[in-house]
Amino acid sequence: MKHIAESAKIGQNTKIGFNSIIEKNVKIGDNCLVGHNVVIHSGSKIGDTVRIDDNTIIGKKPLFSPRSIFKKDKFSSPTIGDECLIGANVIIYVGCEIGEKNLIADLSTVRENVEIGDLNIIGRNVSVENYVKIGNRNKIETNAYITAYSEIDDYCFIAPSVVTSNDNYMGRDKERYKHFKGIKIKRGGRIGVNATILPGITIEEDGMVAGASVVSKDVPKEKIVLGSPAKEISQVDEKQLLKNNLDSDKN
Question: Do strands 230-235 and 223-227 pair parallel, antiparallel, or not at all (unpaired)?
């Protein structure tokens, strides 16, 4: 059994699995594969040749606690571009704009009002919080946490279990409402496994954070930082600079 609203538009050669729910005014392109127990909420737009695996939810509305710092905005319906692969048990909220040829792996969450470009890899169990902007050709690996209001440019690398933050007041003092600020990773920036990036930090172009570091100051262009607190230790090897690694669409 499955439910497809009469106003939903389903493209040619698109297959929808058992127990899936396609609500009103949903648009799904041609040659898509929608798994079992998938829920696609009203107004969502899915491009051509998109795969959505079992138990995934597209277009979820956020919950708001009385203590939440976020307001109940009006949200647009989510869009997912052509040739995206969306894993099992993924949740993509309202207001998301997701470009083409992205992989969003199993168990990941993409909160409301997130913008994602093209050809990104978002690994298993990654959490992308609200109002985040992600460019093109980035790799965000398993269990990474991308805090709200962050910006990630193009060709960035975020290793497993990286944690980012946006609240220097740690949940106390009303002054904090004026100062929430996510992190910014500029083109080609890289963060090693299990690193922690504090609020408002900028990693400049080709900046590199070593694994397990705690970053409390901006990372300069083409420099490596290491430690807790992280300190500059060397220049990024010339061979590893982004300009020397753009000879293939696979990068």
Answer: antiparallel
